[in-house]
Amino acid sequence: MTKPSNHKILKRVIISLLIIFILFCLSSVVVSMCVFANMFERYNEDSNPLFYSYSDIDKNKYPRGEADFKSGENTLKGYLYSTSKRSHGTVIVINGYRCTADRHLPEIMYFVDHGWSVFTYDGTGVGKSGGDSQIGLPQFRRDATAAVKYVSSKSTKPIVLYGHSAGGYAAATSLEDNKNIKAVVSVAGFNSPVELMHSFTKDNIGFIADIEYPFMYAHNYVLFGDNANTQAFEAISSSDTPVAIFQGNNDGIVPYNISIYSHKSEIKNPNVKYIEVNSKSRGTHSTIWLSEKAAKYTLKYNDDSFHKPDKAKANELDKDYMESVLSFYNKAIK
């Protein structure tokens, strides 16, 4: 029997490696699609029993109107809270990942009490808004930009942004899309969508996330083009709009190394404030705006939720935090 030549052996090896590479790429694409499908599935309502819903508050004191506006192909449901005082302008509240428009009702009520109108909304694939899914993290920027465009078409009053988590990222990056934003408050915002996805998947699937990183980036690019992985710190640097960046020292969702805050030495915008909340309780991802007492109650309840929740106790705001936000906005619109 004739032995195959070295040339034929090399050819078979190359073909085998090529087949293995193609199969690896195909399987990685499938894994990436599964990650996106799992992370960004449609989210209909907040399930945390500590969160306020509109049915919990005084509707006579905080009446709201509804509005529909377009974000790409989807129609989003927006809500406008009007102040009984002479309005300073409109705060657009941009909610985080898997949060409906009611998520930040404590801050919304505070803004209304202090002379600001507030506009907030269910994002794409969330609550009463259209969309089969949330699509991906850059969609938060698209929705925020659409909201700013809508509010701008209805009022000539100043517009300021207040965003948390993915909303904090959206508030920062939408500075590239909107020149009429007077100020931005970004709370626990991440710097890069792909960095956050990598961090999330690494917590769930370990080292495979490192292998999948290029495929997640490519998937994001297919969905969002040039906006697939905009760096928030670069968007802030491209503007001279006042920006306040809040970051907790105990944030396990957006840890320091992937936060906007971590890029403070690279941000060129001279009108940026950096506030780190150093507290075991208030320094977590979703307690920065709460009082120390409310933060401790919230964390304890989430660890051991056997008793009936006290929403008023869980949503008490930190007075110094809220006053600093209002002072920042008021100074920006003067």
CATH topology: Rossmann fold
Shape designation: elongated
Task: Please mark out the parts with pLDDT under 50 across 5 or more consecutive residues, or reply none.
Answer: none
Which structural class fits the helix and strand makeup?
alpha/beta
End-to-end separation in angstroms reads 91 Å
Name given to the CATH architecture: 3-Layer(aba) Sandwich
* Total individual domains: 1
Rg, Cα atoms, Å: 23 Å
CATH evolutionary superfamily: Alpha/Beta hydrolase fold, catalytic domain
The total count of helices amounts to 10
Question: In terms of topology, how is this protein built?
Answer:
Layout: H1 6-39, E1 64-71, E2 74-81, E3 90-94, H2 105-113, E4 117-121, H3 139-154, E5 159-164, H4 166-173, E6 181-187, H5 193-205, H6 208-224, H7 232-237, E7 243-248, E8 272-277, H8 292-303, H9 311-314, H10 319-332
Parallel strand pairs: 3-4, 3-5, 5-6, 6-7, 7-8
Antiparallel strand pairs: 1-2, 2-4
Fold and architecture overview:
40% of the residues lie in helices and 15% in strands. The chain has 334 residues and is an alpha/beta fold. The protein has one domain (51-192, 230-332): Rossmann fold, CATH 3.40.50.1820. It has an eight-stranded mixed sheet, sandwiched between helices. The termini are far apart.
Quickly describe the structure.
The protein contains 10 helices and 8 strands. It is α/β, with parallel strands linked by helices.
Main features:
single chain; eight-stranded mixed sheet; 15% strand; 334 residues; Rossmann fold; alpha/beta
